Amino acid sequence: LKECDKSRDGVDNDKNGFVDDGHGWNFVAGNNDLKDNHGHGTHIAGIIGAKGGNQYGISGVSPNVSLMVLKYYD
Description:
Elements: E1 24-26, H1 40-49, E2 69-71
Parallel strand pairs: 1-2
């Protein structure tokens, strides 16, 4: 059986008070829309977690990190 993707099912599956927050949370709008309107967060995340040794010319300071996106200021 194919496992159901619960990241966008409209349910607070982990019961933490945030619906569909598996990829992060937007505290500005109170939803799971994580668009980076200014590019700064995406830029910094790339510096931190860019995969090394892939012929793209950059390796992040912590290439094996897991990032959780939290938007709290816009």
